[in-house]
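Lab channel / #folding
Pinned by the channel admin:
"Please post every new chain as: sequence first, then the C-alpha cells as a reply. Keep commentary short and put observations after the output so the thread stays searchable."

First post following the new format, from NK:
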Amino acid sequence: MSMAALLHRHLFGIKVDGREPIWYIDDQTVLYPAGHNTVIFNLEQRIQRFLPGTDKTEEITAIAVSPNKKFVAVAEKSDKGVITVFDLHSLKRRRLLTATDSLSKEFVSLAFSPDSKLLMAQGGAPDWSLTIWTWEKAKFVATIKTAASPNSAIYQCSFCPTDNNLICVTGNGVFKQLKLVDSNLKVLPNALNKREPQNYLCHTWLSEERVVMGTDTGDLLVVDSLELKAFVPRSPSDSNSIEAIVGFSKGIVTGSDDGSIAIYDKTDEKELYKRTKVFRIDNNAVKIRHLAVSHTEEQLVMATDNNQLYQFNLTNADIMKPDETNFDFLATSFHSGQITGVDTCVRKPLVATCGLDKSVRMWNYVDKTLELTKYFNEEAHSLALHPSGLHLLVGFSDKMRLLNVVMDDMRPFKEFAIKACRECKFSHGGHMFAAVNGNTINVFATYTCENLGNLRGHNGKVRSVCWSADDTKIVSCGMDGAVYEWNLKDFKRVGESVLKSCNYTCAVCTPDGKTSFAVGSDKKIKEITDSNIVKEYDLPGAVLCQVVLSHSGRMLFTATDTGSIQSWKFPLTNELQDYQCHSRAVARMCMTHDDAHLFTVGEDGVLLMLDVRDKEIRAAKRDKELLPFSEEILVTKSDLEEKTALTTDLKLKVDELQLHNDYQLRLKDMNHQDKIKELTDKLTAEIEAEKARHEALLAEKNDMEMEYEERIKNMEERHL
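Reply from TO:
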C-alpha cells in the first residue's frame, strides 16, 4: 500500500482580485498569489518557490511584504479571516493571526510598519475593523472601525514609510490619517473635510508627510502635513479611474481602468506633479490592478484585471514613444478566464489547455514556457491531445475541431457537428477518439475521421469518458447517476452501476479495465468492480469533482470544488493527504505518461504542475526505460515550399549583394591604386625638385665658403 506525495513545481497564472497582488523581493524576484498559493518567482533562473495556502480557508485576499524583505503576510478568507506570516528565507510559517472580535470573514488590505515589527490588517464588511499586532509575539496592539457605515468600502491601509505610528486609510468616501498613541488609534484632523467625499481607490506615501491618492474620476489629490496641498484634475479627454499608484524618485506612476499608465514628474508649480507621458498596453484595454517598482527603479511591473503580468522599462520612459510596443509579459501570457480543458501527450513534453477566453495554448513543462497560443472565435469547452503531440481535438461552442499542431500554429483540418462538447479523449494508441454529444458518446477513427459507432444509454449528460489501457473498453459516467462500461467490439454496454441520487462528474478505470473509480455530487469516491460499489469514502466539507489514476495503476488523486487536491492511499482506503492548490473549483486533471507530473486546471484560470513522488520509495519508480522526447515537428508542404522559396530568394539576394560588393570593392581598389600612383608621382617629383634645390643650395654654399676664404686670405696678406 502506498500514498503518493505531491510537490508544487510550476504555476502558470496569477490571482489579481486581492489587494496589492505583486511585490518585488529583489530586482530579480517577484512575489504574487496564484490559485491558493503564494509564488516566489526568480525571473532570471525561471524558478518558482511556493508558500502553500492554509487548510480550511477559501482564498487569498491580500498580501504584504515587510520593508526589510524578510517576511510576507498572507491574508486568507475563512470564518474569521486568517493571516499567516512566512519567513521568506526558510519559507516556514512564523505566525498565525486572526481577529477574534471581528464579524468579517476576510482582510482586504495588509501593511507592515517601517521597522517590520507591527502588522496592520484592514478587515472587510460589515464592521470594517482596522487591527494592529506586534506580529512576532502575536500581541494585539490596537483596533478601530474605519468605515462610517457597513455600506462603505475600505480599499487600502498603509503605514508612513518613516513613522511606525502614522497610518493612512482610504476607501469609498473615506480618507483617514490615524496616529497610534499608547495602544490607541487617534483620528487626526481630516484634510479633506471641506471637500465633497470621493471614491479614493488607491494611495501611496511619497515622504514622511505626503500622501497621494487616486480617485474613480481620474483625479489626483496630494495631502501634505494634514493639508490638501494640490489637486491634479484629469484631462478633459480622459475619464478613466486611477486604480493603482506608485511613487519613485522622479515622481509617480498611475494605472487606469483602460490599460494605460501615466507618468507624473515633480514640478515646482502649484499642482506639484505634472503628467508628462501616457503609455497603453497593446490590445489589452483592461483595468490595471496594481503597480510595483523594482529597487533600482529600472522596471515597473503591473497586474491587470484579465490575469496578466506585464513589465515596463522605467529608465527609458523619457525616450520611449507612446505608440510603440513598450510592454512585455513578465514571464509569459496566461489564460484570462476559466480553463476548461487540459491534456498531455507521450512523445513530447507538452501540455495543452483551453478556456473560456477562446484561446488554446501549448505549454512546455520541461522549459516552463508557453510554446504556442491561438485565439478562436468561439469558447473552448474540452480538449484532447494526441499521444504524438501532433494533433489536437477541441470542443468549441459551435463545433468540434480536429487540429494539426504545426511548427508555429494550430490549423483545423476537420470539423464535426458536435456543439459544446464537454468531454473528448484520444485512445491510448491514438488511432481513435471519443467525443461526448449530449447523452451520447461518438467514437471516431483518428486518421479517416469515420464514425465507428455511437454509445447510447445515458439518460443525462455524459460528463466523463475513460479508455482502458488496451483501447477495447470505455468507462463513462453522467449526470443521470450512471457509470457504464462499454465494449468497443460491438459498441454494447457490458457493465453498469446506477445511483440516481448522485450526479457523477468524473470516472476512471484501472489499466485492465476491471475496476472503476467515480466521483460526484454526493461528496464520495466510489470503487466499482463488476457493476457493484465495493468501497466508498467521503470527504467532509467539499464535493469531489475530478479523479485521475496513474498509468501504473498505483496512485489515485481527486480534486474538489474548493480547489484542493487529494492523494489517496492505494489500494483505496480512507487515508488521504490534502493539498491546497486552486482558489476555485478544479475543472480538469491529467498525468504525464511516466506518472512523474500531475497537471490541474481550475475556474481560477491557473495551470498548476505538480511533481508526483511516492512516499515509500521516495520517487515513483519507472517500470521501464522511456524513450527520449521526439524533436520532430509538423510542417505543411505549402509552408515548407514557401520557406524553401524564401530561402532560395534570400540566397540569390545574398549572392547578388556579394557580387555587387565585390565589384564595388574592385572599383574602390582601382580608384585607390590610381590615387596612390598619382600621389606617388607627385611626391617623387616634389622630392626630385627638393633634391635639385638642395644641391643648388649646397653648391651656392660651397661657392660662398670659397669666396669668403679667398677674402680672408687676401685680408691676411694685406695686413702682413
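NK: The first helix runs from residue 637 to 719.
TO: also worth noting, The radius of gyration is 37 Å.
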